[in-house]
Amino acid sequence: MTGNIYIYGEVGKQVTLDTVLKEISPKNSDYIVHIHSPGGDVFEGYAIYNAIKNTGKNITVQIEGVCASIATLIASAGSRIIMNTKSQFMVHNPKITSVSGDHKDLRNVAAQLERIKTQLIESWLGRTSLSEEQLSQMYDNETWLTPEQAKDFGFVDEVQEVLKAVASADFKYYKHMNDKTSILNSIRKLFNQLFDENEKPKSMTETLSDGTVIVVQSEDGDWVGKKVTKEDGSPLPAGEHTLASGKTISVDDTGSITEVKEPEAITEEEPENTEDMKVKEENEQLKARIKELESALEAQSNTAAKAEAKAKTFENKLNIELPSLKAEIDKLKNTTVGDTTPPAKAQIPFDGDAKQMDPMKSLFGKMIIDQRK
Fold first, then answer.
1. Using one digit for the tens of pLDDT, what is the confidence trace for 229-265?
2. How far apart are the two ends of the chain, measured CA to CA in Å?
3. CB proximity list for 308: less than 8 A, separation 6 or greater
4. Virtual CA dihedral for 175, 176, 179, 181, nearest 10 degrees?
5. Which of 45, 198, 213, 344 is most buried (CB neighbours < 10 A)?
């Protein structure tokens, strides 16, 4: 018996581990996981992914609208992933809406986001045709993929038209059946026709860039060499035609596709809503703040290192010059300035036989007495 698990809505709100566990039963032999989700809480997504993998059953994933962010991790739990033609697949780096704390807290948050990104990338390594570096670049650029692009890269295994048939039976066709077994067998046959995975679509419908709907007669999903017409059955003119997805097809005069060219860009940018822009702006502000704090811390460390180096140099110089300075000071202390010998007394010449002259008396005599003469 096949069980169904529905990932419809935001992970952590409309979709939780509890809602998924209620859809898991040991009676089921396999599961189809239906996804239409923009993503949501990372850790709730981890728990849902593990719960699905831990069933040990065959898992088929059906992407029926949007499969974005952490919902892509849940999709990777499938052994086979099918994507409807009118759906989108998106991967991007994990984000946080608010953060507070010092520079250590901010570094821890940034490191945690890096670890989450690595785990998301690891879920696709080996499954896709992309390297770790290429996957990382796609996450950095917030990459949106069409179903065809997702298949080309290996994110999904098959692109499928939306099932238009209605799973109901009109019992007016079974009035001739008289027993319950016949009716049940007929119903079972109808369901097998509707849901047989081995049945592949005989035609694929696409839309040109001008709005024209075309039909490609392809059973294997390969368009080259297949007939293509307009929806009304009229032939598609020969030449190149661009699809709404950006893919280009070349059609020859017989109405067969000779070449399919993928669009140059691997992403489809969608306008961000106000909330997404706000989250993106807060994330950029957080990165800038982290870089600013790291620069300030580095500058502070460099200044401290320079000051310490200067102090060390001064200390070494002082240790070298201090002994010689001390010796000079001691030498100066033991040195006497000038001659300490007392001056000799003046000797006045004296003649024993002559009388000693008074110099003032002699000067007076010359000035006064000599003038009277």
1. 887 778 889 999 998 878 899 999 888 999 988 876 5
2. 169
3. none
4. -90
5. 45
